[in-house]
Amino acid sequence: MKYELKFESEEAIEYFKSNIGLAVFEKHRSAGGKYFFRLFLDGAPFALSRKYTTELRVQKGIDEIVKHASDSEILDFSDNDLVFAD
């Protein structure tokens, strides 16, 4: 999803973190053979994953989101500041 205002995206992220149990993950395979998933929350599209090389890796990606979503932090890259030092 796209948001105009920063606080809107932060609210959506917090809602997602609080309601991870309601998330639905649909696994797909692209025409090029890569795997990915679509994440739905409250029946609406919420996120699209990166591409994975195997179905096992896409499942591990889903499992990591479910496991760590509620205690994850929000990183803000909107100012293009270098967040991770070398």
What do you see in this structure?
The protein has two helices and three strands; from the N terminus they run H-E-E-E-H. The protein has 86 residues and is of the alpha+beta class. It has a three-stranded antiparallel beta sheet, with helices on one face. The termini are far apart.
Condensed summary:
The chain has 86 residues and is an alpha+beta fold.
Helix content: 25-40%
Rg of Cα set? 14 Å
Largest sheet: 3 strands, antiparallel
Helix vs. strand class: alpha+beta
- Number of helical regions: 2
Count all strands and give the number.
3
Mean pLDDT: 89
Shape: globular
Spatial strand arrangement across the major sheet: 1-2-3
Unreliable spans are none
Write the element-wise H/E pattern from the N-terminal end onward: HEEEH
* Share in β-strands: 15-25%
Q: What is the terminal separation in angstroms?
A: 31 Å
